[in-house]
Write a structure and sequence with these properties.
Helix content: 40-55%
Strand content: 15-25%
Largest sheet: 5 strands, parallel
Order of helices and strands: EHHEEEHEHEHEHHEEHHH
Number of strands: 9
Distance between the termini: 54 Å
Shape: elongated
Length: about 250
């Protein structure tokens, strides 16, 4: 997986791309993620990448020419996958979208800044606009980091076990079940007995039930859309109501 990140602040990525799972994956050649500075592509004397907006208004707008030339340069360098613009008006990033992006030969992530990017650059070289959610960041760099991390998890070998990517939250439309480790008891609270008896069928059933409960309690919107049997839905809602009644004063 090759990912190029077009940005005017490439130094922001040093720690993220050099640490933890992403850092190891890059060292082992499993992913090739490169921040690319937009400034050298500017044809202006002082390598400017922004200017005042036509029509007035606060802030600056990123110029068309450096962005278009940078994307076209990357295309010539073998980045044939989609060019994504990190934008609050884009479609929300979902786990399904992450899976789709992981199948691309490569990605170009365009990080806007200030008041955004000249629309002509978006029309000319951007394939999709992507948003992390209904909020605004000072630039697209943090969103690009999130996409790099999420997509890389689907590259074979990046995670210690491919099961990790398939069993975590959102992999089947549900949130992940609770996890436990040592010690067996902490401040009077014990690990659920089902996780200690070695019966993998019971453990699998318990985890499924817990995923349904957690999703229904914390993300009812996901619960309504998740795939489950009518019996699972009824039993989950009944347990949820019972827990609420038990917790009431």
């Amino acid at each position: 997986m090759k990912i190029a990140i077009l940005t005017i602040f490439p130094e922001m990525f040093d720690s993220v791309l050099g640490s933890s799972i992403l850092g190891r994956a890059r060292k082992e050649g499993l992913v090739d993620i490169q921040p690319v500075d937009i400034r050298p592509f500017s044809n202006l004397k002082h390598k400017n990448t922004d200017d005042y907006p036509f029509g007035g208004g606060a802030g600056m707008v990123m110029l068309t020419q450096p962005i278009c030339d940078a994307v076209r340069h990357l295309r010539n360098e073998g980045y044939h996958g989609k060019c994504l613009y990190m934008s609050p008006r884009g479609k929300a990033l979902t786990q399904q979208k992450v899976r789709e992006l992981s199948q691309e030969d490569g990605l170009i992530l365009l990080c806007g800044h200030y008041e955004g990017v000249d629309q002509r650059a978006i029309d000319a070289v951007v394939d999709e606009e992507v948003s992390l959610g209904d909020f605004v960041l000072t630039g697209g760099e943090l969103a690009a980091m999130a996409i790099c991390d999420a997509v890389s998890r689907y590259v074979p070998g990046v995670l210690g076990s491919q099961e990790s990517a398939e069993e975590e939250s959102f992999s089947d439309g549900l949130l992940e079940y609770p996890q436990y480790t040592r010690p067996r008891e902490f401040e009077g609270v014990e690990v659920p007995e089902v996780l200690l008896n070695g019966n993998h069928a019971h453990i699998k059933a318990w985890r499924r039930q817990q995923s349904l409960l957690v999703t229904a309690a914390m993300r009812p919107d996901l619960f309504e859309k998740a795939s489950m049997t009518d019996k699972e839905r009824r039993e989950t809602l009944a347990l949820l109501h019972k827990e609420a009644d038990d917790a009431a004063p």
